[in-house]
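Field notebook, page 482. I keep forgetting to write these up properly, so this time I am using the form the group agreed on. The chain and the ligand, pyridoxal-5'-phosphate, are recorded exactly as supplied. Prediction of the bound pose follows.
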Amino acid sequence: MPTKRSVKDEARELRLYEDVAERVEGLIVDGTLRPGDRIPSVRGLHRKWSVSVSTVLEAYRRLEDRGLVEARPKSGYYVRAAPRLLPDEPESSNPPKRARRIRGSMAYRLMAEVTKPDLVKLGAAMPHPDLLPLKALDRLLAAAMRDEPASSHGYMVDSGYPPLRKEIARRMVDAGCTLAPEGVVVTNGAQEAVYLALRALTRPGDTVVVESPAYYGLLETLEVLELKALAARTHPREGVDLDALEEILASTDVAAVALVTNFSNPLGSVMPDAKKRALARLLDDYEVPLVEDDIYGELPYEGPRPTAVKAFDRGDRVVYCSSFSKTISPGVRIGWCAPGRYLERIAHLKLVTNTSSPSAPQLAIARFLSGGAYDRHLRRLRATYRDNVGRMTALIASTFPVGTRATRPAGGHLLWIEMPRGVDSMRLYESAARQKISIAPGPMFSANGRYVNCMRLNAGLPWSPRLEDAIGTLGRLAHRQL
Ligand SMILES: Cc1ncc(COP(=O)(O)O)c(C=O)c1O
């Protein structure tokens, strides 16, 4: 039997950080601590609340990440001058404990909307072309065709263009992963990476553990592969609950776990490192593979990009998946996976599925990554996504019905909104469509038709008066339903 004590201990520790952070946050929210006030010193709180210094420090780091306090050198932590007035956050989900076959959803309809020119596209999680480095990419594509016609028009059969695989392996060092370029398989977007991973790891009828709410593209993939989804309780900031996951692993035959570990879709949650380490260990204990979708990992609002669970993967069971769809272009369809011990099987599946991914985009992206242009572009993009999410949250606080909750992502470009019970997001979807606004209604993110009063909004759009109006309109439509 696997030893699980240490995993439990780590989970307990994580809860302790969060408890301390929430108690101090409570003092700020209720006005006991006001903007500019010094919050209790680390040592002071350590003595007063009988928690370790490292727990208080970690809790204060979390408050810093949430924009509530700031550290001043040699002076301590202070409540920020203008902590943003935000709606409450949603609570952890509580999905039913039964694995389900997925029913067809409305993802196709939502995706079809992205081609409509006159819509405010808050539905699909697609960055607007104006935010992407399309001119640079076009130049690099043209140069690839001109300078390397044989490569650009040939197959890239050996799991992808070697210089691109090398650039990807190099960038994954920032996610804490040491990979050989030969361990990277280039795919048609993250979607194909996840599909190939699940094909390699499961058989029809198997059960896969997912977050709740979960990315609908993943749920649809499970449907097509005739797999059952078992949703685990999920925290809006820290992702899947490890106690809930362990309970499932101990009682159910699970073929794989599939999670978006950084700035998840739709919640925007990021697993803290300690939790990632504990998750890798737990999966090792139970010998269950993880499909780790890290498509938003390079989009933190502050600081370095978060690590991947793959960084803690001693058992080599993590199939890491990602793409450039959220950062460079969704249309060039360049993604990848790092399949670990499943490399041979996944490389073979890729080959028989579509031989290789398009060649010219692989050449162009390899060149884009090898200069400094990609990092400069990422800095701008992160700032835009951060500003948009902040502005959207503030507008939601002022225009949506009282009781509306919103996530507070620390990266990516998605917001999950929980409206008061009584608002039906499918009806909201229809009425918003009549006003030329698209949204992603909550039930798309569940295998059980849950989240009727929720929706996901895409903040990957240039800010404009029309966008502001659209948020106000959604708020009015939600009010009208109550
Ligand atoms: C979590 C997640 N995974 C995968 C995808 C699909 O990515 P790609 O366009 O690279 O196939 C998306 C797109 O929205 C996503 O949000």
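OBSERVATIONS:
- The first strand starts at residue 69 and ends at 72.
- The radius of gyration is 22 Å.
FOLLOW-UP: compare against the apo run.
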